[in-house]
Amino acid sequence: MAQMSVEQFANELGLLPAVLLEQLKAAGVKKTLAEDSLTEQDKAQLLDYLRKTHGTTETRSKVTLTRRQTSEIRKSDSTGRARTIQVEVRKRRVLTKPGMPAETETAPEIPKPLEAVSPPSKEPVSIIDAEQLALRNEEARKQAELMARQAEEIKQKRERKKAESASNINKASIEPEKATETEASPTAIKPGTATPAEAEINSPSTTAKKTETGQSTNDTQAAATDGTLHKPAVKPEEKVDKKKKQAKQQVVWKDENTKKRGVKTRGDLTNGQQGWRTRRDKHSKPAHAEEQNMHAFSAPTEPIVREIMVPETISVGALAQKMSVKAADVIKVLMKMGSMVTINQMLDQDTAMIVVEEMGHIAKYAEIDNPENFLADHESTTGEAESLPRAPVVTVMGHVDHGKTSLLDYIRRTRVAGGEAGGITQHIGAYHVETDHGMITFLDTPGHEAFTAMRARGTKITDIVILVVAADDGVMPQTIEAVHHAKAAKIPIIVAVNKIDKPEANPERIRHELVAHEVVPEDWGGDTMFVEVSAKTGQGIDGLLESILLQAEVLELKAPVKTAAKGVVIESRLDKGRGPVATILVQSGTLNRGDVILAGAVFGKVRGMNDENGKAIKQAGTSIPVEIQGLSEVPEAGETVLVLDDERKAREIALFRQGKYRDVKFAKQQAAKLENVFDQQEDVKILSLIIKADVQGSCEALAYALHKISTDEVKVNIIHSGVGAIIESDVNLSLASKAVIIGFNVRADASARKLIASSGVDVRYYNIIYEAVDEIKAALSGMMSPDRKESIIGLVDIREIYRIPKVGVVAGCYVLDGIVKRSSLVRVLRDGLVIHSCELDSLKRFKDDAKEVREGFECGLSLKNFNDIQVGDQLEIYEIVETARSL
Question: Which domains are assigned to the chain?
Fold first, then answer.
């Protein structure tokens, strides 16, 4: 049998070892030190002693009361919709019913009065029978049990405070004992006197003088009832009142019950009272007339300050719900700040945080409920695979028509440039080439000015940049831009001086011009390799490939292979037969058919995978460009592609990002509407456009180029841009917004063509980007107001004044210079100062009307609404000439 020391047993009971040693000594167990061991027999002996001391030797039966209450509450969620929630409150109360008290020295006192009053006698007899006495004893035991339970709760709360536990537990053990002795143990009933229990119940001084000591109360009761034969009967109302008063003195379940039952709710029969629900007597007072003791002397509460987590966007109603205030209060605060809002209007994070702080709460940036946290864990688990050498990714950049695609054609032994409209590249081409020196992946970027975003995207995913410069043309604007992109990304540059076979080629000129932009050749002490090549004859191609592989060895390019794939969307489009199609460059891992992928706000499963030649493949390793299908939508070019294990998680992240992008899009549209209001006030002319292109990159480039040609007077407003054919919804949008539809390498479908023919919507088709830009620029130029300039065409000298009735003042003039036209404008000059400007009212030569009078001739004329002319004044004849403006 396991034994423990006195100190261990004291710690288990929450007592000091000294207190436990005293109790053991009183129980007859001889233990003097805290290290002495205790047996089970010693513990049993101590327990018997404590039971005898406290008068509880018998086992106590337990009564469990269970109560269940069901109610409904209505609560609004974050979207503002009200929902009904079923609330079930379960309360369980365990009552320990003690047995009859054990026979002690005072026990014989109970039957003595009963034996004395049983036979008829002449002495005064109490009217309290045995049944009432038993009820009172039972009530006293219940009160003692409740007090003992309260003492036990206090004991559990103060377990950690060993210094105070001894005094608290002694008080808790003494109080039930006193209560049991004074309330539960009846004294002998003497003739002509009342028992303490009777006096306590029947005497009116008990309720009137609760604050007096017990001795004075007993004296008063004895004096009031001394010498009486019959005691006043106890009324049922007084019993109920006594129970309520005792409940006020000893509030049971104060922490839980008063909180749960403190407010009267619909369907609550207890009227918000604490405790268990009982029948109210018809003579008792209503519950609302009695003030709860817990509310009698409560101090005023301080305002609650909450920590509010504010997301990027939140509605006014949701913000009010987080602060537990009415939405009207939040709207009032915003109105004071100068913002007129509604309950469903979205607020940005900064505004919401100002409102929260204005209302006295603490605002914090919310970083919860973000499913993208899963991606960080995913990347940390996938980054532990072994890294192996990989092929370099090389981006070919340069000015338009400098021979980038032709150079790649010679390397690949194909002809791609001939297939592009206008002979210029308008898409990013991704190819991997097996050479004698190893595999190289090439990215061919457009060189046209509009494709800045494409070129920037190409430098982000590349390892080496080949800068193609035509030897006969020199450094051009897009060449400089490519240098800046590479410098910003810290990517090594290899300069390929192309068209070296031409007679007018001047490679030294290229070197001098590039040095001005911090591209210094190795021959001149720099770190940039220069290779002279010819895409037509193949001169220097092998040297270029060797330079690429040499640079790749220096970079020591490695990537994990046996892990989930990760890559970048190079280009995306909507194919008529296959749906959304994306060109992806795998940067690490291995992409297999059937993998679940996430690309920005788009997810899907790889249903099919082709290489750059259109051949179906089952898997793709690092640095391999592939074309995949099976996505939910067309992804944005430049988005990161991740392979996930769980399709449900990919869908969740994609939907989260879509909502985030939607909020940003709405915010931009709201800003655009505000801009339009200001533009209309300033009479700014706006050309609305709808752009549909074959691939995402071309759509992006065209939108960028058209936005760039906007001015303060005329602006391009792109209402919608997308990938794929022109459909009926695009035409309906054009009708509603009076916009022009631009189709870049796409056509309208059958239903859209019928609607276009019936509605007369303006649709323009292009396959070369600069043609589209030139036409839109011409349209904007036509919308601009023309320039108005004055042109002085003649000078007239007034030599005579005639005043004719019903006509007015007519001036006889001589044309000194130029010509006078009947529709001309006139300035009146007197001593070299302009005194009036007006129009000619009439022009005559002799008595006939004349359209014009030239230099050296005389004429008569009158001015419109002006008669204050004198001899010697001069008239300056001029007209307004309008000239068309262009962008």
Answer: 8-60+98-249 (no CATH), 307-365 (1.10.10), 391-556 (3.40.50.300), 683-783 (3.40.50.10050), 787-883 (2.40.30.10)
